[in-house]
Design brief:
29 helices, mainly alpha, ABC transporter involved in vitamin B12 uptake, BtuC, 2 domains
Amino acid sequence: MAVTATTPDTRPSAATSPPAATSRTGTAAVTAALALLVAVLALVDLTQGTAAVGAAEVWKALTGRADPTDASVVIASRLPRAAAGLLVGTVLGAAGAALQAVCRNVLASPDTLAVNAGSYLALGLATATGVSLPLFASSGIAFAGGLAAAAVVLGLSGPGAGTVRLVLAGSALTLGLTAVTEGLLLLFPQETEGVYEWNQGSIAQNGFDGVLQMAPIGVAGVAGLLLLARRVDPLALGDDAARGLGVPVRSTRLTAVVIAALLSAAAVTLTGPIGFVGLCAPALVRPLARRFRALGRTRGSVPTAGIIGAALVLGSDVLLRAVVPADVAVTVPTGVVTSLVGAAFVIVMATRVGDSAGTAATARLRIRSRAVFLTTTALLTAAVVGVAIASVLLGDAKLLLGDVLNWAQGRAGQAITFTLDTRVPRVLAALLAGAALALAGTLVQAVTRNPLAEPGTLGVSGGAALGAVLLVTTVPMAGSWSLAGGAFAGAALSSVLVFGLAARSGFQQNRLVLVGFGVATGTTAVISLLIILTDPFNATKALTWLSGSTYGRTLPDVLPLAAVLTGGVLVAVTRRTELDLVSLDEDTPKLLGLHLERGRLGFLALSVLLTATAVAAAGTIGFVGLMAPHAARALVGRQHARVVPVAMLLGATLVCTADLVGRTVIAPAQLGAGLMTAVIGTPYFLHLLIRSRQ
C-alpha cells in the first residue's frame, strides 16, 4: 500500500506555543481532572450491583461501620471489581499509547495487533489440556501467545505502514487464531467450560488475589515505558532521523512491543480481553496533545492514556449497570461494551483516513487461452464431483455407491436411509454455500476494485450472522426461509453502513476496509452478547452454527440458497461485460454510456443476498470469498465470463472439502467448515499481504 499513516505532529509552532509554565499548569489541570473523573466513576461503580448496597452502605463498609453482609459485598466483590477495572484500563491505555508511538500508526493497539487473540489461543490450549495453572503461569502463557501474534502482524505490516495493512493483517490473524481456539472449545467442552464467556472480558472479581498478583506487572510495565520514553519520541521523526540522533531504533521498538505485550497479557489474564481500550484511549489523548505540548511526548501520553483507559473501562461498567437491570448486567461482560465503543471509533476514524493507490498490488493483466479455461473448468468440475461423492460416502458410517443408488430408488435399509437423509443435505449446503460465497466475493472485488475485499472482511457476513443468531436465540423454531430472511436483514443493514460510507468517497479502498472492520467488530460483540444472555441450549446451537457447521441441515434449509444462487448466476452471466467494465476504473463505463452507480449498487445488492443466504444455510464461513476469486483470476485471467464459473467451482470444492475434513478426521467429534476455511484462509490472506507489499 502506498499510504503511510503517521502519528499527527502535535508540536505547536513558535508563534502559537503556550508558555512553558502555562503548559505545565494546563497539563497538571487536565491530569487532575481526568484522575477526578476516574475516582468518581470508581465510586459510582461501587454503588452498583445485584445486592441492595447503596452509597450509604458503601461508605459504612469503607469506614468499618457496616453490617457484616454489606461489608462482605463491598470488600469481597465491588472493591476488587473497581480495582480490576482501574488496573486493566490503565495498562491497556498505556500499552496502546506505546504501540502507536513505536509503530507510528494511529490504529495500533493490542486488538489490531492480534495480541488478545494470541493470548486467547495460548490460554485456550493450556485450558484444553486440563492442567490447572496458577495465575502467574497463565500470565506467562498469555504473554508468549500475545507477543508471537504481535510479531507476526508487525512483521507483515512493518513500522509506519498504512492503517489498512495493519488492520488487515491483524484482523486476518485474529480470525485464524480465534477459529483455532473455538475449535478447541468445541472439541473439549468440559475442559474449556467458561472460556468463551471469559474471552468477552469481565472485570468481576472474587477477592483481591488476582489484582494483587497482576498489579506489580502493571506497575513495572508502565514504569518501563516511561523509562523508555526518551528513546521512543525520536521515532516519530522516522527511523533514519532517529538513528542520526543516536537512538537504537530496532531495540527500542522491540523493547516497547515486548512491554506492551506483557501489559496486555496481565490484563487478559486478570479479566479476559477488554476490547479496544488500547485503541481509544491514545486517540482521546491526541486532541489534548494539540493544546498541551507535554501530552504529545511519550512520557506524558503514556500515563494520560492509562488514566483515560481506566475511565473507559470503569465508565463502560457504570453505563452497562445503569442501563441494564442489575440481574442481567452481572452476566454481560464489560468487554462487550468497550468493543461496541471501539467499533464505532474505528468507523469514525475511517472517515478521516486518506486513500491509498491500492490496498494490494494491482494484478497483472493475464491473457489465458480458451483451452486453458476449458481444461481448468473440466478439472475443477471433476474435483467438485469427486469431493461431493467422497462427502456422501464418508463420515461416521462409511457407505458404498450401491447404498446411495438404493437410497435414491427408495430401496435402502433404515440405517442407510437415515444416514443419507442427514448427510446429503449437508453436502448440498456446503457445495452451494461455497459457490455462493465465491460469487459474492467476485462481485464485491469487481465493484470495489479491491482484490483483498470479501464479505467477511467487509462486515457483510457479520451482519448476516447477527441477523440469523438473533432469530436463532429468540425464535428457536424459526424455519429455513425465516432464518434466511433474518440473515438478509442483518446483512442488508451492515452493507448499507459499509457501502454507504464508502460510496461517499467513491469507494476509497482504505475507508471501505476500515469501515468493514469496524462493522465486523461491532456485530461480533453483539453476537457475543446474545449468546451470553440466552439459555445454554441456544448458546450451544449458535456457537456451532457460527463455526460454519452444516450439522442438522435439511433439504428445505438448502432451498433458499439454491434459488438465490441460481438467480445470481443468471445475473452474473448476462451482465458479464458490464462487470468487466465496472472492475476497470471509474471513467471507462461512463464513456460507454453505462450507469456506473446503478450497476455497482445492483451487484453489491446481489452479493449481499448471496452472502446472507449462504450464512443462513451453512453458518459463518470466512475467506472463501477472498481465495476463490483471487485463485480464479490467477488461473483463467480477468474476464468475468471465465472468472465466475471457475471461482464458484473453487468455492464449492473448498467448503465441501473443509466440511468433509471437519467431520471425518476427528470423528465422532466434528469441526465446522468455517473453522477449517479460516485455518486455511489466514495463511493465504497473509501471503497476499506479503505479495502486495513487495
